[in-house]
């Protein structure tokens, strides 16, 4: 206890506990302030209740004694931060002579662990020149790993941890794994072991114990989380692969076992959360898991494994000479408009390489179908990356329309113009690319095409009434209920982690957008009963008789904008089929997509007659 403080205690003016805290602020002592950093007390005035401290960031700082007691923390003189104030040159010399000892001393002063970012903040500028810090740190990390005194993580944001005790380096590495409280901690420990496998050269017992612990952890994880079990076993295999003398225990858990026994859908979903390298390890286990059927099994999960998984599966199939199976799957899925977003993005990006054989005119229609379906769904958007691809990949639309004939290019451009996903400015930019590649589509933007889009919508009275009823239900029921749901969800707490609130807000966006669409459409709509239609060519309110190459006959009725009913062969004049038939005459041939197979058929118009409701 400082003599001046001891006198105050003896006089009964302050309690002993306060005296001990005051002693920590006596001249010559060191302290830590949250904003000013470390500092040394240079003077105090007990009667005046003042203290003067030389901080790193503020020299000669005069503070109220009470404030200093509350806002500072005592640190010992041998603390790294205290030495930065009085023994800075010694620390600089140590950084060159023994950088490992410097880092160990720094970690000891910070409770045994700190992140790489925090370490750089402590050293760069004061102890080590900023321009040389990166080079110094790269060399120091290598020395730290070789010394095995510190656990050095692979990621900069993770903490360096000082090893303590009398354990061997190998035992310390195993202890890190055993001390991990969750799968992430186990994985980090295994990554450190893989990077430092040399520590086990003379300690095979520690390594054997490690593998046993991993298997136990994987068995427990498999009952709770498949993704955690997959990741743990894949990390263990990396450890085995990094050692020349290590072999898999015949009784150990294998990736192939986990893959074979897992539900395919769950396997795909769980695998999509893993890092790329471990996803690849899972997919490489398919041959061992399924034998001759592995290709068929891996293709089935192709659409469900996320962006990284799609790339890894395609790469594995290419390396194994099995791309024909993937090509067949993609052709079929694209024709059915059933290909997932990530798989479709992969096809577009690989259109001049691995996916060249499946990049067809149907890819554009599939993409627009996905965007429109996602736009109309109630849930969160799943196709944002696909939408961004249209804008970011400057050559995608050009490559698409280059392989289309004139009619296909116009139909695709028309669909893109009508697609509600893209904003008007974005549509203009995309159409500019299409027109540059296919000037024959320019009429859609200036001239005939733009005039058509401004015309009224011709609809049946029945469909108009249905739209009005939908709008009425939105305004009276669904929107007010959604407003209540948002209010209730907001009361649940933290909006960042509030799934109910996010879902209700997503639904609100959809409802308001749908309300706007309905109001706009109803305002443009013109009801009709289709009487007196001109049947010299295919028109609104006409029945068209067509035949295919085998002579089979089919009748289609072209009606209003909202009157499509495929089961009854009723088509809207704004639909793809309606646009293909419109203004055609008897004897002309048209290309129409079959609704079941999605394959284009060539049909000949035999006759046209008015529709009589």
Question: Would you write up a description of this structure?
Answer:
With 613 residues, the protein is an alpha+beta fold. Among the domains are: 3-76, SH3 type barrels; 87-162, Arc Repressor Mutant, subunit A (Orthogonal Bundle); 322-455; 457-528, Helix Hairpins (Orthogonal Bundle), CATH 1.10.287.180; 542-610, Chitinase A, domain 3, CATH 3.10.50. Helix content is 55%, strand content 12%. It has 29 helices and 15 strands. It has a five-stranded antiparallel β-sheet, with helices on both faces. It is elongated. It starts with a helix and ends with a strand.
List the helices and strands and how they pair.
Layout: H1 3-10, H2 16-23, E1 30-33, E2 37-45, E3 50-55, E4 61-64, H3 65-71, E5 72-75, H4 80-86, H5 88-97, H6 99-109, E6 113-115, H7 116-123, H8 130-147, E7 150-151, E8 159-162, H9 169-179, H10 183-195, H11 204-224, H12 226-242, H13 255-261, H14 264-271, H15 276-284, H16 286-290, H17 294-300, H18 306-319, H19 323-335, H20 341-349, H21 361-376, H22 384-392, H23 396-402, H24 406-418, H25 424-437, H26 448-454, E9 457-460, H27 461-490, H28 499-524, E10 525-528, E11 542-547, E12 553-559, E13 570-572, H29 576-581, E14 589-593, E15 600-610
Helix pairs in contact: 1-2, 4-5, 5-6, 9-10, 9-11, 10-12, 11-12, 15-18, 18-20, 20-21, 21-24, 23-25, 27-28
């Amino acid at each position: 206890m400082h003599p001046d403080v001891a006198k105050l205690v003896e006089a009964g003016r302050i309690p002993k506990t306060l005296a001990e805290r005051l002693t920590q602020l006596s001249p010559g002592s060191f302290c830590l302030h949250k904003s000013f950093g470390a500092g040394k007390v240079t003077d105090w005035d007990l009667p005046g209740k003042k203290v003067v401290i030389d901080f790193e960031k503020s020299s000669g700082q005069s503070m109220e004694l009470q404030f200093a007691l509350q806002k500072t923390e005592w640190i010992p003189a041998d603390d790294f931060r205290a030495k930065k104030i009085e023994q800075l040159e010694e620390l600089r010399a140590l950084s060159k002579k023994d950088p490992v000892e410097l880092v160990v001393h720094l970690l000891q002063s910070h409770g045994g662990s700190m992140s790489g970012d925090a370490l750089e903040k402590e050293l760069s500028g004061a102890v080590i020149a900023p321009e040389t810090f990166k080079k110094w740190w790269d060399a120091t990390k290598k020395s730290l790993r070789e010394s095995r005194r510190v656990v050095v993580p692979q990621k900069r944001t993770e903490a360096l941890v000082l090893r303590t005790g009398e354990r061997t380096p190998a035992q310390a590495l195993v202890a890190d794994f055993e001390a991990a409280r969750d799968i992430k901690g186990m994985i980090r420990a295994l990554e450190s072991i893989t990077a430092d496998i040399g520590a086990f050269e003379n300690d095979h017992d520690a390594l054997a114990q490690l593998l046993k612990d991993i298997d136990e952890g994987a068995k427990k994880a498999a009952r709770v989380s498949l993704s955690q079990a997959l990741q743990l076993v894949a990390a263990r295999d990396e450890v085995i692969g990094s050692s020349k003398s290590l072999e898999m225990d015949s009784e150990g858990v294998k990736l192939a076992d986990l893959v074979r026994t897992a539900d395919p859908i769950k396997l795909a979903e769980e695998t999509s959360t893993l890092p790329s390298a471990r996803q690849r390890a899972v997919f490489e286990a398919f041959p061992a898991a399924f034998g001759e059927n592995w290709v068929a099994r891996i293709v089935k999960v192709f659409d469900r494994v996320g962006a990284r998984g799609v790339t890894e599966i395609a790469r594995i199939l290419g390396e194994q000479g099995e791309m024909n199976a993937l090509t067949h799957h993609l052709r079929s899925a694209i024709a059915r408009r059933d290909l997932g977003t990530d798989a479709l993005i992969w096809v577009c990006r690989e259109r001049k390489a691995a996916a060249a054989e499946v990049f067809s005119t149907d890819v554009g229609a599939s993409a627009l179908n996905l965007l429109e379906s996602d736009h109309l769904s109630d849930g969160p958007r799943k196709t944002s990356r696909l939408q961004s691809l249209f804008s970011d990949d400057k050559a995608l639309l050009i490559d698409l329309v280059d392989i289309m004939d004139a009619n296909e290019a116009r139909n695709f451009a028309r669909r893109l113009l009508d697609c509600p996903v893209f904003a008007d400015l974005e549509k203009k930019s995309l159409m500019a690319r299409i027109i540059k590649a296919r000037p024959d589509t320019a009429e859609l933007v200036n001239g005939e095409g733009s005039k058509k889009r401004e015309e009224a919508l011709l609809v049946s009275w029945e469909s108009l009434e249905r739209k009005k009823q939908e709008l009425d239900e939105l305004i009276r029921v669904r929107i007010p209920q959604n407003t209540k749901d948002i209010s209730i969800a907001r009361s649940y707490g933290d909006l960042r982690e509030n799934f109910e609130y996010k879902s209700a807000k997503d639904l609100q966006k959809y409802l308001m957008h749908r309300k706007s669409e309905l109001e706009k459409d109803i305002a443009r709509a013109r009801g009709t009963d289709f009487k007196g239609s001109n049947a010299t060519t295919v028109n609104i309110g006409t029945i068209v008789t067509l035949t295919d190459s085998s002579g089979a006959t089919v009748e289609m009725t072209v009606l209003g904008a909202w009157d499509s009913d495929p089961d009854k062969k009723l088509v809207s004049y704004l639909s793809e089929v309606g646009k293909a038939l419109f203004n055609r005459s008897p004897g002309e041939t048209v290309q129409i997509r079959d609704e079941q197979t999605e394959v284009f058929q060539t049909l000949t118009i035999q006759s046209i007659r008015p529709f009589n409701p």
